[in-house]
Amino acid sequence: MRKTFIFLFLLLFTFSVQLSYAQQKVKGTVTDSATEKQLQGVKVSIQGTEIEQLTGIYGEFVLNNVPVGAQVVQLSFEGFETLYFPIAIEKAKDLDMGILSMNTVFKTEFDASIISLSEDELSEDEKGGSENVSGLLQSSKDIFLRTAAFNFGQARFRVRGYDSSNGQVLMNGISMNKVSDGRPQWSNWGGLNDATRNQEFSNGLALSDLTFGGILGTTNINTRASNYRPGTSVSYATTNSNYTGRVMATHATGLSADGWAFTVSGSRRYATDGYFEGTTYNAWSGFLAAEKRFNDNHSLNLTAIYTPVRRAKSSANTQEVYDLAGLKYNSYWGYQNGEKRNSRIKEIEEPVVVLSHYWKLNDQTNLNTNVAYQFGHIGDSRLNYANASNPDPTYYRNLPSYFIRFADNLDYASAYLAGEAFKNDPNYKQINWENLYRTNIENGSTNYYLYEDRVDDKTLTANTILKSYLTDRITLNAGFNFKNLKSNNYAKMLDMLGGVGYMDLDYFATGDAQQNDLNNPNRIVKEGDKFLYHYDITSNEITSFLQFEFKLNKFDFYVASNFTSKDYQREGFYKNGTYAANSFGKSKKELFSDVSYKGGVTYKISGRHLIDVNAGYINQAPTIRNAFANSRVNNDFTPNLTSEKILTGDASYIFRAPGIQARLTGYYTKFEDVTETSFYFAEGLRGDEADFVAEILTGAEKLHFGGEFGIEVQVIPTLKLIGAAAVGQYTYNNNPNLYIQSDTFTDIRSDFGTAYIKDNKLSGTPQRAYSFGFEYRDPKYWWISANANLMSHNYLDISPLLRTDNFYLDKDGLPFAEATQQEIDALLKQERFDDAFLVNVVGGKSWRLKNNYYLGFFASINNVLGEVFKSGGYEQSRNANFRELKQDKELQYPTFGPKYYYGNDTSYYLNVYLRF
Amino acid sequence: MKTIKSFKFLIGLALLIGTLTSCVEDSEYETPVISCQDPGLVATNTITQVKAMYTTTMVQFTEDIIIEGYVVSSDKSGNIYKTISIQDKPENPTAGIRIAIDETDTYLKYNVGRKIHLKLKGLGISKNAGVFEIGLPQGTTLARIPSPNVSKHIFRSCETATIVPKVITLAQMSDNFLDMLVQLDDMQFRTGDFGQAYANLTDTFSVNRYIVSYDNNCTQLGEIIMRNSGFADFKNFSLPTGKGSVVAVFSKYNNDYQLFIRDTNDVKLTGAACIPLFEETFTTVLGTNPLQLTGWTNFNQAGVNKFWRTATVSGNQVAEFNPYDSNTAFRDQSNIAWLITPQFDMDKQTEEMLSFRAEKDFAVTGQPDLEVFYSSNWNGTTAGITTANWVKLPAILPTATRVYSTVSVDLKAITGKIHIAFKYTGGYQFSPAHTTRWRIDDIKISAKK
Q1: Worst-scoring range by mean pLDDT, A378-382, B185-189, B219-223?
Q2: What is the DSSP letter of A430?
Q3: Across the interface, which of A231, A342, A439 has its CB nearest the CB of B108?
């Protein structure tokens, strides 16, 4: 903090600044170029100042106190292209700009939500995560990012390979990223596309007014009621993605004469049969924003959002299962009384309330204070079993490959029978719910049950953000943020499937270690009870950031610094039998203090050529998920816990001319001291049972570098050609340490030694993507766009456990006799998925009906050619040593082969809307 | 006005569409009605008839043969694995048979007492280590019935009966009782195994534990193996130290009868146990070759290469003397080896009985058997062995080879403080060489106090 103060002081000394105090008035009228109707509620502002106004009912505006000299008037209005008018203000002369016409933008009807939801659906709590590149980027105007958002999302593309936790998503300045894993939870405002349309996006390290941000950029969703275009909009969408229908209605009053503005929006998204078999989608969304403008200087806005959603998940499957049952196969569901029932439902009910105060201290300075409270819960249900056989229809023993896994004992007859049963018998192919009930009822026990992992978070955030134009060349941004989280975590018994009581024990342990709560041994659990584990995690976070922006004739540059102090503490409510000494009660408090810096320069070679360079040195505390070794059962923190460091830089060349816009960028980012925790249900790490395992990598290093290119050429006024390319390489840059925590490995540090993963590619995104297309806009209000895309260099997620010494060594501690380095390398070679060639077509049309009603539709077809492609997947860790893996891989269908996700085949989306 | 109008329209539209689209069923599901549908199968043959179809090699069933039986085994504890034993009647059964099935947790579906029918066409019958077994023919042998085939062959009826274990004694043991649920009364574990667990604490090997039958005078009548799996959930439980009844599935492994309990509820040993005056099972020894045990004397009167030593048989340690060696350098021309017990005071109790298990192998005609002596005047030193007065005991040793038999010798007439000795005589000086191998175990002196 001190450092930055001195810096500021020096800057003020170094730069002599001329402030001009003469001011004039600017007025005009804004209309819709298509209808010539006056537009009310358009935001008219002077760039570089805090001067702004909304047009009145006749489309009129009057801006007072506009400084003399060259200024730029900006007109922005939702649904229309933003306009910039350069003007020159002369002393003692007011300016009448006359009638300014705005053009409708069709692209705003494009719902990136369609892509974002299919990514969300693929987010599994175990491996993977909520990646939402398009949601983050849909508000960007950059050619490359828009193309990435609309075209690359279906292959799960991640910009520069970054995890979504590296992008900050704010709502009215309040960070919406979850403290537990650092990622934005898009379901918290799902189904509110109309209401969340006002987004401000800063790309990458570029500065934001509101926060230091992350290396992936910052998105702020602005829900100020007065910013919405007054009027009503209703729409109906139909699609064949994870939901099949959506109904949405929004009404905004705009700012009334007495200073009130209201916006309400609601939607329903539903599917009884989604894209993957046996998936349902059940979501309601409600939004309310109310603003009171007390005067020109004070305004108070209240936002309330409630978007409960229940969606059924679909499974990743081995290639054998896909070949038997098709690419839409889902192992999580089965028939019950003739109805489809999915065992893995994700329920998210996390309402948010945000109260924002906007205070214009003077024409140069704004202070924005926000308070937000979020509560509610997330629940993930799953089926579990005790003293019974695994109910998963794709359990390896049910599949044909099980019967031909030994070369000297091939049982083709059984393999055939199993294959036929799997293809044709719904009781074999899917979960046999009746059988689960039957087992429980006939035996008077609870061998099978449905429960959910619950996370009940209460988050309170308060911040205050200052923006001040110190001079017309220097801008100051500063912010102070406080966040408190209390996260209550437990397992909740949902349905005992005909059983009468369940004894809360770990049936795979023995003796006292069986008890999940030694303070309540052999407790009988009923439906609705908490069991298995129960703990709280509390976190307090204080952040302050300071930023300066300097605009000179040839140069623009900025510097920013951020200081965060964060603490975590766990409180266990169960005394776990395996970890009796360190599970009950409070853990120690772990405190992290991190400072980060970033800066950038834009060199304006000329009006057409720009060079932009950014660099950052960022320290960030590990997320709660990575900080605790195995938070369900003990108070331990991850060994070698330390903050992550990010060293990053990028350089861009930007070309802007009438009709052609292009950007070429090179970037380099190194992550150091990364802690990565992976939780999964492992089978066979110990005999033949299933156990919840935490796999922890510490001290890992990741390297991302590459280039991006985007170009847009307006060939003729109605036709535009677009091209974009991303070529990158994202790898593990060292061999980190691996720890495994489970009931078997009860040592606090179950040290598996070094994981030899250096130079393996990071998974979860194609590392190269290319796009080429066109956009045609007809003067008769219809448009069509088509893109051809090539996505390549997407890799399977490797299992670090397979790359430890444990893999190479036989029982006696010596390497397997037959293991040559060549063979080991061949066995562990990371799989690269086949390239995917995807064609997308998108278009729309709108009509103006009488009484100023607008009817329009928007349609898109993704993957027109129906390309079959793998979009993700992971190695199974079960074959933990060389001999087992070699034997398994020699089979046509390995018993424990990798599990894959396939991209959707041809999918459509049609949205019909009516506006008035 | 326009605002209000559009509001009304909006709300109306929303309600309409809301009702049309609200039905997504994802949480309320009706419990399925669990009823039993008896497949209505009728047995065409009895278990005994089916067993008779086997002669010497595996027989594959090609006709529509159906048998029925009541399940008596359970794999819940993990002691029994991938087999189901059935008997023809729930009470006073006449025959039992075992089914090899490649499924786990079968106890949930084929619960104890459940009447099942088996369609044998396509399956086969064979003998596995002396026990009849039904499975899936694979070449010339039987494999476990694979999971996809099970529903084609095994059918549950709607009847679950209460199985009454058949009470038998050790003397009655025969192949007729195989795979039936039997009950043996007045049994207890070997006192030498008191303190042990059902299986090994540190590994997952199967272990033979012997249960011993005593009469009212605490005279040992016989023993039988209880075989416990190292994967059973009770494997680390301590063996009960009382006397009482044991219920188990009766089985066999080659020449040895064995019992498989379903879980520890089958073991009701609550009465007072017979504690022998002395018992040695050779479970823990100080040295294995030569055998060294506290209080025992291991002395070679003749021979320098071979000694009394231990051997492990099915996880069980025994004492053995074996003069044989393929290498002529390690052969003795004459072997005279003594294994002498600690001292017993015969005046402190009455009705003493010596028993031990003995087995011989590689018998040679003309070689004298192992001999058992007692002496009351041995001074306890190795030098004094050949000069002490040893009285031969009338022990009737097994004549057949490779069969353990229990040898009992009545000691009640003997008085004073004595030692008991086991003396082996043999060697390579004879032709053919006297190289019979003798094994002894579970040396016990029971008495009445």
Answers
A1: B219-223
A2: S
A3: A439
pLDDT of residue A687: 44
Q: Are A586 and A570 in contact (CB under 8 A)?
A: yes
Residues 214-253 of B with CB under 8 A from A: 233, 236
A851–chain B nearest CA distance, Å: 11
The separation between CA B234 and the C-alpha centre of its own chain, rounded to angstroms, equals 15
Nearest Cβ partner of B104 from A282, A337, A389? A389
> What are A647's two structure tokens?
């060293």
Query: First and final CA of chain B: distance in angstroms?
Result: 111
- What pLDDT digit, counting tens, does each position of B126-164 carry? 999 999 999 999 888 899 999 888 999 999 999 999 999
Q: Are A631 and A583 in contact (CB under 8 A)?
A: no
> What pLDDT shows up at residue A72?
85
What integer pLDDT is reported at residue B25 of this predicted model?
84
Query: What domains sit in chain A, N to C, each tagged with a CATH number?
Result: 2-104 (2.60.40.1120)
On whether the CB atoms of residues A123 and A863 are closer than 8 A, the answer is no
SS3 A423: helix
Please report residues of A whose CB lies closer than 8 A to that of B75.
none
> B34 vs A434: CB contact, 8 Å cut-off?
yes
Rounded to an integer, what distance in angstroms lies between the CA atom of residue A14 and that of residue A9?
9
Which of the residues A268, A310, A508 would you substitute to probe the B interface, choosing the one with the greatest number of B C-beta atoms within 10 Å? Answer: A268
Q: Are A882 and A906 in contact (CB under 8 A)?
A: no
Element (H, E) at B2: helix B2-21
**Residues 382-421 of chain A whose Cβ lies under 8 A from any Cβ of chain B:** 387-389, 397-398, 403, 411, 414, 417-418, 421
ipTM comes to 0.75
- Name the closest residue on chain B to residue A345, using Cα atoms: B26
B-chain CB neighbours of A337 within 8 Å are 29-30, 32
CB pair distance less than 8 Å for A310 and B18: no
State whether residue A341 sits within 8 Å of chain B by CB: yes
- Any bridge partners for residue A335, and if so which? A340
* Residue bearing tokens 């705003």: A108
CA distances (Å), origin A240, targets A281, A682, B179: 12, 33, 58
Asked whether A665 and A650 are in contact (CB, 8 A), the reply is yes
Reduced to 3 states (helix: H, G, I; strand: E, B; else coil), residue A476 is strand
Beta bridge partner(s), residue A575: none
pLDDT-based confidence at residue B201 (cuts at 50, 70, 90): confident
The reported pLDDT for the residue numbered B7 is 59
Structure tokens at B84: 């189901």
CA A250 – CA A265 distance, rounded (Å)? 4
pLDDT band at B369 (very low <50, low <70, confident <90, very high): very high
Give dist(CA A590, CA A607) in Å, integer. Answer: 51
Q: What is the pLDDT of residues B292-318, one digit of tens each?
A: 999 999 999 999 999 999 999 877 889
Residue A473's Cβ-count burial label (10 Å; 0-12, 13-18, 19+) is middle
Domains of chain B with CATH codes? 47-160 (2.40.50), 166-274 (2.40.50.140), 279-448 (2.60.120.200)
Burial (Cβ within 10 Å: 0-12, 13-18, ≥19) of residue A439: buried
Q: A161, A730 in Cβ contact below 8 A?
A: yes
DSSP string, B258-293: EEE-SSGGGEEEEEPPP--SEEE--SS-SEETTEE-
- A614 near A599, Cβ under 8 Å? yes
pLDDT of B426 strictly over 90: yes
Mean local confidence (pLDDT), A69-87: 81
Provide, as residue numbers in chain B, all residues whose Cβ is less than 8 Å from the Cβ of A398.
147
Contact A443 B138 (CB under 8 A): no
Do residues B31 and A499 lie in contact, with contact meaning Cβ atoms separated by under 8 Å?
Answer: no
Within an 8 Å CB–CB cutoff, is residue A272 touching chain B? yes
